[in-house]
Structure formats: C-alpha cells, structure tokens
Design a protein that fits this description.
This protein is an alpha/beta fold. It has ten helices and twelve strands. The chain has a seven-stranded parallel β-sheet. β6, α3 and β7 form a beta-alpha-beta unit. The longest helix has 21 residues. The chain is globular, with a radius of gyration of 22 Å. It starts with a helix and ends with a helix. 39% of the residues are buried. The chain binds S-adenosylmethionine (SAM). The site of S-adenosylmethionine has 22 residues, from β11, α5 and α6. One of its GO terms (biological process) is tRNA methylation. Keywords: Methyltransferase, S-adenosyl-L-methionine, Transferase. InterPro entries: MT_TRM10-typ, MT_TRM10-typ_sf, tRNA_m1G_mtfrase_arc. This is tRNA methyltransferase.
Length: 286
C-alpha cells in the first residue's frame, strides 16, 4: 500500500511525528492527498496531541504538550516523488457506446468508485482509463499496451483465478461495462478481442461458481487489490459481496444441494441476520 512508502520516507528523513492540522489521521489518505492535491511535508515543529500512531509515525492534531518533527500542509514537499507504478488497474471503456443511457450513467459511477478503491490502496497513478473520460489524476488514453505481467478480468475467461495468478500479475484490465441483467454475454471477451489484448483472460469464481461473485468492475478491482495485499481470494470476494449477492448464492446452493446446507452456507458466506432473514423469507415463499 502507498502509505508504507510514505511512512518509510518519513522515517528515512528522521521524522517520527507529524502534525496534521485538520486532516484525517490516516497515513494512506494523507499520502494520496500529497500526490493528488499538492499537500506535503514542511520541516517545522508544532505542538499538539497524539491522535494516532501508525507504522511508527505519531500523528498529532490540535494544541498540546507533544512537539512534532514536521507538519503536513498544502504546498508542503512531496516526499514520494516516484511512487510505484504497479499494481495498475486499467478500466477499458471500449464498449461504452453499446450501453443504454442508464448503463452509461452507472458505468461512470463505477468508474469513480474504482478510483476510490484504487485510492484505498494506492493512488490515481495506479489507474488507467482507456477511453474518453477523465477520472481524478488517473491516466486517460485511447489505447493500452503493457510489457508487465498482465491479465484481463473476464467472467467468461478460460483461466480460473487463484491467489498465485493474481499476485503474479502487475496489470489488471477490467471492462468498463455495466449491463443490466447481464444482457451482453461475453462482452469482456469481445472487448479483449477488439482491443487485441493478448493476455490471459481470468475469471473469478467462488467455490467453483460465479454465482454471487459481484460483477461490478469496481468490486472486482477491490478483490484483486486485496489479494495483492495478501488477503485470500475467497475472503476478498466475500468482503465485497452485497447482501443480495450472498442471498443469490445461498439460494443457488440450496437449490443444488438441499436445505440441509443452510447452516454451513450461512457460516462460510459470513451471512448477517439480515441475509439469514432474507434467505428464510424467500425459501418460505417457495
Ligand atoms: C458487468 S461485468 C461485464 C459483464 C459482461 N456481461 C461480460 O460478459 O463480460 C464488468 C467487468 O467486471 C469484471 N468482472 C465481473 N465479474 C467478473 C468475474 N467473475 N471474473 C472476472 N472479472 C469479472 C470484468 O472485467 C468485466 O468486464
């Protein structure tokens, strides 16, 4: 994650405490704002109180008896001038014109949600948009090619994802596609063919099925970035599933294997009370 570069640069410079004024005490958010909005570090001591200690750095706010080694503010120095280029999340909008108006709106919303996902782990420089849309400071380009290990995330891909495949890739190409009711079957495969993406097309499954795996591209981006950070693939998928995704998966499994699987399903899918009640009420209506 980007914040580890921020904290190690601070330590390298001999700073172990930072006065952050009114900012949120979160090293990742501070690092992103430094790269995106021209904030940074000024060597100036300021009194405050420690509100958080993270990664060996004390974050101070307000007034208090502790003195910081430096402060964080607009116009300060960017201390990560050369942040890592990888991992890179590429969203390709090559099928945008095949979408209806509502799908286009949702695609744009998901594009901005993808930027927020990337910023949770890295920053805008780790995102590329292929198409005609500006999103934060992500690179916008009309075509994309990569020499780094790359995969295309495709629900109909011929390779099944596992942690090794995801962690072995540096670049993740996603289709910037929202298709209501999955009406555009094989859309990602078509996009890859149209663009000439000659990279493995990888599908994410959950215990052998794509049922319940969220199909929003911002959520798939979050899954791969979580796995890159060391999380297990199954845990990463479950953490981005909505309640409706969980209900759909549980009903699918009950349909295949009977109601006796319910307790185990609730457990492995980490179903909360709401999901349990939604499943029970759907089953009672059958
Ligand atoms: C709504 S999906 C597009 C679905 C479209 N019906 C298709 O057949 O490709 C949007 C994007 O999310 C990603 N995606 C969604 N589900 C996925 C899965 N199970 N495995 C891999 N990628 C997935 C892909 O990059 C895809 O282009």
């Amino acid at each position: 994650m980007l914040y580890t570069y921020f904290s190690s640069r601070l330590r390298e410079l001999g700073y172990i405490s930072l006065h952050i004024g009114r900012e949120t005490p979160d090293l990742q958010k501070l690092a992103v704002k430094m790269l995106v909005k021209g904030y940074g570090i000024v060597e100036e001591r300021r009194e405050g109180i420690v509100v958080k200690e993270s990664d060996g750095i004390k974050l101070l706010k307000s007034k208090g008896s502790e003195k910081s080694d430096c402060i964080y503010r607009k116009g300060g120095k960017n201390i990560i001038p050369d942040p890592p280029q990888y991992p890179k999340v590429v969203v390709d909008l090559g099928l945008f014109n095949a979408l209806d108006e509502e799908e286009k709106k949702k695609t744009i919303t998901q594009l901005f949600m993808t930027l927020n996902v990337v910023r949770k782990f890295w920053w805008d420089g780790n995102m590329v948009v292929v198409g005609d849309m500006k999103v934060g400071k992500a690179v916008t380009t009309s075509s994309f090619k990569s020499d780094a290990p790359t995969i295309v995330l495709d629900p109909y891909g011929d390779v099944e994802a596992d942690e090794k495949i995801i962690r072995g890739a540096d670049v993740f190409i996603l289709g910037g596609i929202v298709d209501k009711g999955r009406r555009l079957k094989f859309a990602t495969s078509e996009l890859a063919r149209k663009r000439g993406y000659d990279y493995p097309r990888v599908k994410i499954k959950l215990r052998g099925s794509t049922v319940g795996v969220p199909d929003e591209f911002n959520k798939i981006a979050e899954v791969v970035l979580r796995v890159k950070e060391g999380e297990g693939l199954e845990d990463a998928v479950i953490s981005v599933m909505s309640k409706a995704d969980k209900v759909a998966r549980i009903l699918h499994d009950v349909n295949l294997r009977g109601v006796e699987v319910l307790p185990e399903e609730f457990k492995w899918l980490k179903a909360d009370d709401k999901v349990v009640n939604m499943v029970k009420s759907k089953l009672n209506k059958l």
